[in-house]
Amino acid sequence: MRSPLDSGEKYLHRPGRFGQEGSTMTRLPPVVRTVRLRCSRHQAFARFTQDISAWWPPGFTVSGQRPARVTVEGKVGGRVFEADHDGKEHDWGVVIAWVPGRRVTFSWALGVSGGTTDVDLLFTDRGQGCELTLEHRAWAEDQQADRAKFDAPDGWDRVLEAYRTYAESHSRPGET
Fold first, then answer.
1. Do the Cβ atoms of 98 and 76 come closer than 8 Å?
2. Burial class of 90 by CB neighbour count within 10 A (0 to 12, 13 to 18, 19+)
3. Are 79 and 71 in contact (CB under 8 A)?
4. Which tens digits make up the pLDDT trace of 29-76?
């Protein structure tokens, strides 16, 4: 029998800026957003990870323009990246946790200076739909300005509104 603490989730161990012996770095609080969706958590997960190119806002890219594609490679250790119209790829992060239909966590470098942060997405069943909780964490004290950008209305709120609109309009009843 599996322990309630053992969710079966697989994670990529990566030494970070925090938790190291002797570390005196201070972490800033995470940016947390919750979105209710009128689709199953499996549909919501697929719309986020597989269809990200279709809904990702163009201003949230390396170039500041709509990329040719955005990719989340569906495995621990997979890349999260954009490809521009000339075929050049720009890395945004690496998948740390991958539990289809439930959770994806990746390191995050886009729009962040001085090292990566982590973005954790948890998809939970809620009545006739689901809920997505985004937690953008592992902020260092020297990343206050970057954290403020993502916490502002034109940050994750804008990204998640584009996602919610797409996910709800592209999910079909009975689809899992």
1. yes
2. middle
3. yes
4. 999 999 999 999 999 999 999 999 999 998 889 878 888 899 999 999
- State the Cα–Cα distance between residues 38 and 17, nearest whole angstrom: 38
CB contact set of 76 (below 8 Å; sequence gap of 6+): 10, 11, 12, 95, 96, 97, 98
Nearest CA to 101 among 50, 57, 36? 50
The kind and range of the H/E element at 95 are strand 89-99
Are the C-beta atoms of 35 and 124 separated by less than 8 Å?
no
pLDDT score at 66: 84
Q: How many residues does the chain have?
A: 176
Residue 141 CA from chain centroid, whole number = 21
CB atoms within 10 A of CB 129: 17
Question: What angle, rounded to 10 degrees, do the helices at 41-49 and 156-169 form?
Answer: 120
Residue with the two structure tokens 């790829």: 89
The segments of the chain whose pLDDT lies below 70 read 1-26, 172-176
Domains of the chain by start residue, with CATH? 28-169 (3.30.530.20)
